[in-house]
Amino acid sequence: MKKDAYKNLSKFSNNQTAFSLALLRDGILNDILDDDANDILYYAGKEVARQFYTKTLNGIQEFFSAAGWGDIQISSQKENKESWLLTGEAIKIRSAAIDEPSYFLEAGFLAQEIQQQTHRGTECSYQSDDKSRVIFTVYID
């Protein structure tokens, strides 16, 4: 957690809720789970997708919005690979509060959703190219 997170968050509306979630997810959970945090969050995301199967690309977008994860759009779609772009206030808020926020929960969710929709094996990775967006790449077998 950044030392000046409170100052960075003051420019966002609804910063208390966002800060609380960032504190729990990127602070406390990472400390408790230690080196296993990324793997556990990825598989937790897959389990969330199993429980809340959206069935459509629109459903994925609606779920991300409802979960407070941000605004997600598919940016390219090929037979064996899809790229998704995650933006919005949630990304900006987490980036203001956390040095390197983890998006493994979202990656796991996205991988499982695409797997359920395509009936093919999937894996998902991500990169955060700046403080306002995250790019997910879903690899489809």
From TrEMBL:
Transmembrane segments: none annotated. It holds the Pfam family DUF2507. InterPro entries: DUF2507 (IPR019642), NO_sig/Golgi_transp_ligand-bd (IPR024096). It comes from the Bacteria. This is DUF2507 domain-containing protein.
